[in-house]
Amino acid sequence: MDNAPAYAAPVWLPGGHLQTIWPAIYGRRMPPGELRYHRARWSTPDHDFIDVDWLRHGNPPDSGRTLMVLFHGLEGNSHSHYARAFAAHATQQGWDYAVAHFRGCSGEINLAPRAYHSGDFEEIQWILERFRQEHSGPIIAVGVSMGGNALLRWAAELGHSAGRAVRAVAAICSPLDLAAGGGSLGRGFNRWVYTPMFLQTMKPKALLKLAQYPRLFDRQALLGARNLHDFDNVFTAPLHGFRNTDDYWARASAKPHLHALRIPSLLVHARNDPFIPCSSLPTAQEVSGHATLWQTAHGGHVGYAQGQPPGALHYLPQAVGGWLQQHTA
Questions:
Q1: Domain annotation for the chain: domains and CATH numbers
Q2: Among 28, 203, 271, 279, which residue has the least CB neighbours within 10 Å?
Q3: Helix, coil or strand: residue 65
């Protein structure tokens, strides 16, 4: 394992669950006026759209500055706690910053008979190509949780060609073995706390999609889904060309493809992440020489709070941003 910048969890925030839950709650409390995104809507080749929230600095909009692109996690958006933390860091560095929303995650349901999924590397490819057309300076990309799996899946799929779009990528707390992560979310405390949290937004979105396309899936089966495996079996897998959940999780997982990475790639995990079994984390033997593994003892799932209550969320943006910056020269 490569040496990550030192991280020590606050004594008032013990354990992976608290280190996950508290930052997610507190991190959304930034005053609304403090983060002023500009939204752009991009039309996709299949006559759908994605929404991109921008923070651009200086005039003209693009004069060779670094652009950081963030791909959010499952049911995330540009106001997720980690997106706000990275926005603040990018602003401090004088970088442009953009959050590319997966379809249906920007506050408006998308148009096509599809949504988004954990291995959607074709969508990542189209989005990054569009950023490359719009931005002349260096581009670095960060994927958080599910977004990190999709980003690494893209980087591995393209190999050396990925370098035409971005200088380097980072994946934070990403479930690179989707079966291991999905199984973990379906058991014990996770099943009763985190899984309902995801399903309470995923099910209504799926029903909106069914209203658009009435024969798309079985409504009663969706309403009966009690975990992500059930939901993906009814909705995510068939809508995106997979036979079932097991086929989707196997084919979309980035872990079997990490040996194919050919651009600088940082993989950050906390070994007490309640979403991701420690036994499923990649080893140095499972990744290419272009990959850097940071596996800290603590941090939870995209938490990494520091300092006195209520805590600051500087560690991930500073550590990951600093690593990525080394590859922008």
A1: 16-177+257-325 (3.40.50.1820), 182-252 (no CATH)
A2: 279
A3: coil
